[in-house]
Amino acid sequence: MTVGHGEGDGVTGSPKFSIARLAILAMGAGALVLGVSVPVIYGVSRVSAPAALVVALLAVALAIAVMGIVANRVVDRAVDAESAEARGADTETTAGGDDTSRPKPATGDER
């Protein structure tokens, strides 16, 4: 897997794999889960402090799970894009070296 510097591939405009992009997306997903869970934790804490602790621990576990899911999706996309790019380069190389894709010129000897 090639680690790019964020430049686009020119066709789709999507950047190549970037560890910074991976970190921002994963941490952003975790922060979003925790941001949504804070009002829920606050509301539960008005009723019962131990229940709020349980909800907070569940929110942390959910944030970790969401970060893992997002990271896996980002890496899978990068691997799929790179393998598709490699397959495209392989077909161009074999088509250029192997002339089976073009008909042979007529020599007049065919029967």
Automatic annotation (TrEMBL):
Domain of life: Bacteria
Biased composition annotated in UniProt, kind: Basic and acidic residues: 81-90, 99-111
Membrane-spanning intervals of the chain: 22-45, 51-71
Region listing for Disordered, in residue ranges: 81-111
Keywords: Membrane, Transmembrane, Transmembrane helix
Identification of the protein by name: Uncharacterized protein
Phylogenetic classification of the source organism: Bacteria, Bacillati, Actinomycetota, Actinomycetes, Mycobacteriales
